[in-house]
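Dock uridine-diphosphate-N-acetylglucosamine; give full complex structure.
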Amino acid sequence: MSKFIVRGGKRLTGNVKVSGAKNSVLPIIAASLLGEKGASIIHEAPSLDDVMTINKVLESLGAVVTYQNETIHVDAQELSSCEAPYEWVSKMRASFLVMGPLLTRLGQTRISLPGGCAIGTRPIDQHLKGFEAMGAQINLGQGYIEAKCDGRLRGTKIYLDVASVGATENIMMAATLAEGITTIENAAKEPEIVDLANFLNGMGAKVRGAGTGVIRIEGVEKLHGTEHTVIPDRIEAGTYMVAAAITGGDVYVEGAIADHLGPVIAKMEEMGVEITPDENGVRVVANHPLRAVDVKTLPYPGFPTDMQAQMMALMLASEGTSIITETVFENRFMHVDEFNLMNAGIRIEGRTSIVTGGAALVGAKVCATDLRAGAALICAGLVSEGTTEVGGTHHIDRGYVHLAEKLSGLGANIWRLEEEEDKPVVIAPAASEEVASKPKLTGTPVLNVQPTGV
Ligand SMILES: CC(=O)N[C@H]1[C@@H](OP(=O)(O)OP(=O)(O)OC[C@H]2O[C@@H](n3ccc(=O)[nH]c3=O)[C@H](O)[C@@H]2O)O[C@H](CO)[C@@H](O)[C@@H]1O
Ligand SMILES: C=C(OP(=O)(O)O)C(=O)O
């Protein structure tokens, strides 16, 4: 069991560099399965647990995958299996994105059902509706989905009942090798969809309209490997913007693309944060009391659900009452109970949370209920009195590269403890106390690990 330890009270300043986008690189790695000739090279692939998981999925299918210096090399010319096992899909829902590529390339696939997760039930009916409309026969049973088609999939018009990111991606990938033209209506418009379309087009696909509500894919006979650089992670960027603002800091978020962060920037500006974008990133300055705002999560270009928890942390540090309405996922307020352990006093009413700013936050032992919840609790810890311990680090590792290192590079008092299960660790004991055991430490600042009597 490992945890992040945060001591509040430091103003963040300096430069932080954003890594490649998790939500781009995962579908792009899945898409590399479509390359029947030559390998794909994917640059700016963040070293996240999710990336390692999807690489394992590809290896289990027979692809040869190497990862070095944030570059992934995928040779999928020879595939030996069409089955994505429970072992990997249960670890990460995005593994399900191999279904479209496998079905269209091999004519059959068997994938473990992804199931729900901490933020909701997360059905996959729209993915399956798309595949069926393209001529696939789908069978469900014993925790697996089997899909097959006679010959190639057939292009057709598919209207998505919800603008699902994953369904848009899965269907788009399946359509690249289908016979004829596929049109996806009410498609998701996220920047990650555009990044995937660019990757597919680099492989020889014919995808048009990505980033709009209607995507048109003309199927081709074969695709080949390509070289691609993943876009910067807008959610990681937004998280550092919140971390800067909550501490009244002055931080340059290098690599942040302001165009991808429209609603986050708009809401933070409404709160009184000064945001200055340039061609290489975004500068965030917050040196006066912040104002309350109301936020409703929506599909892109609306306010991202993946920034909801971090925004809630920022609202806690503002003056007045803010309201957050979560419309994308049915159960994405699990972090509220954890915030309340820090004296936040947030109330939930159905799909709305009422956040009264200005409460004096106090450090506590809390747990990341999902990866954004974890990041948000750390942001709150940055301005809490005393020490906050954030457990559930496996969630945070899914989506943040070197979080403690990046924040401590900005001056935050944060580090990570890797704790062996049978050896308890005493956090910040009184000066006279002995540390119960020596934990393995990673991250900086190591100096803070000394008993300080805080
Ligand atoms: C790896 C990745 O890119 N993950 C992102 C992706 O997840 P993901 O692709 O899973 O999210 P979706 O856009 O599919 O889900 C949005 C909503 O649609 C519903 N739905 C989805 C599919 C379906 O077949 N039927 C259905 O009803 C979901 O339950 C949810 O309520 O987009 C989410 C919404 O921006 C983000 O929070 C995730 O970080
Ligand atoms: C919910 C998220 O991711 P995933 O869809 O991979 O669970 C997220 O990135 O916040």
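Observed: The chain has two domains: 2-17+233-449, 22-229.
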